[in-house]
Amino acid sequence: MACQQIGHRPRFQGKCDLTKSFLFIRPSLRPKKLIMKRNIIYFFTAVMALLGCKDYLDAKPDKALATISSLYDMQSLLDDYLRLNNQSAAAAVIASDDYYVKDAALNAIAQEGDKRIYHWQKGNQFEGTLDGWYYAYQAVYYGNAVIEHITELKRDAANEKEWDNIKGQAHFFKGTGMLFATTIWAPAYEEATAAASLGVPIRASTDFNIKSTRASVAECYEQLLKDFKAAAQLLPVDQIHAMRPSKIAAYAMLSRAYLMMNKYTEAKLYADSALSLNDVLLDYNDLNAAAANPFTAYKGEVLCHLATANPPILNQSNAMVVDELYQAYHVDDLRKTIFFRNVGTNLYTFKGNYTGGNAQFLGPAVDELYLNRAESLARLNQLPLALDDLNNLMRKRWNKAKVYTPYASSDQATVIGYVLTERRKELLMRGTRWTDLKRLNSLGYNIEIKRSYNSSLSTLPANDSRYVMSIPEEIIGLTGMPQNP
């Protein structure tokens, strides 16, 4: 249905496509008032660009925040999809062992920080633009700005659904910023050490005068869980577009976070909550394996669109899939043709991004929920249920013209192994491999990953300090917070 405008605030009814809202209309077609409102985002972002790299140390940008005075303004800010949806920190993907870059291609890449992340070299990993750090805390700042200002507006019967939706979105984006930051700059969560281990700063307000200090890992997870739970309470089940997070997406991020903490009862609980609302898997038999991008953006299993800015090192022309991983797919597994494109003798690049393009998808999706629940069930020794989830996923990935032999075992370790194998093959280039390596090694899996460059071999042993990346040197200099060893 068409978007209807009541007063100055566009209201969306039915299945109105967000591409018809003011954020996606060509400038020449936007009403003057919508252009003015869009300028809120431009001005706000300009202030962030000037002050963000100073890590909240300068004066509060009162002029920028003063422009946020209505629910419409707040939704406008949260609809800044270029920054909140398409600039998720890519470092966890860059550092993973899902891919490799040939020497000549790596030498041609200009971003030295990304190359240091790729080689697991500490120091100067985020120099220049501070990209990953800035992207993560930009989301936190936007969330805080809306949370602070929405409390100044009375919630009443006329606006309660919109009020709740906007506040829920703010908590969701704040939570994702914290989760991605914790993934990159904090060690794996371990119950025995989380209260003492250094995590990342928790920004509770937009006040730039409050100095950033590092919270504990336990405090970081407590905060991001708090934000995702608030989001889950406030958000609607369905949104008008996958750019806006829903209740299902919040449940999914809670499941991801609890799995990162090895808290399987909770990870299963929130996977249950999400899947009770949407358990629909794509049947890969219905996809065009020959297409350059087999998946459609914002559709299918995507619960909320979160993507990297597609740094050059991860571009399909540079990032080659590790051959051992490619060979692990059965010939009747449709992912072998849908996920990969042959670009030379024994050379394959990944084309299976749920973004529908080159950028890597980092958001929550239905397939991840099946795998989260399957692993949690297996670790809770509920093996038949774990196998049900795993086999339900695999049937949607298997060539329907061929016989699928279901996974079966009554041995817990074997079933866990099955789930981890398929998790590795299903979620590559999604950012979860890095967190899986950290959490699995904390459990004693002792996974060592390797890279070769110029005929030399680099290794990253299990639980190595390089799994916790260097905080940008400028941030250390400005705040005095301790650097990661």
Can you describe what's shown?
With 485 residues, the protein is mainly α. It has a domain at 284-462: Serine Threonine Protein Phosphatase 5, Tetratricopeptide repeat, CATH 1.25.40. Helices cover 44% and strands 8% of the residues. It has 19 helices and ten strands. The chain has helices spanning 32-51, 62-66, 71-78, 81-84, 91-94, 103-108, 112-118, 131-150, 160-185, 217-234, 247-260, 264-275, 323-327, 335-338, 366-379, 383-395, 412-426, 432-442, 473-479; strands spanning 4-6, 9-11, 99-101, 198-201, 214-216, 319-321, 340-344, 347-350, 449-453, 456-460. The strands form five sheets. It has a two-stranded antiparallel sheet with strand order 1-2. The chain has a two-stranded antiparallel ribbon with strand order 3-6. A hairpin with a 2-residue loop joins strand 7 (340-344) and strand 8. Helix 3 packs antiparallel against helix 8 and helix 15 packs antiparallel against helix 16. The radius of gyration is 22 Å and the shape is globular. The chain starts with a strand and ends in a 6-residue tail after the last helix. The model is unreliable at 1-43 and 46-63 (pLDDT under 50).
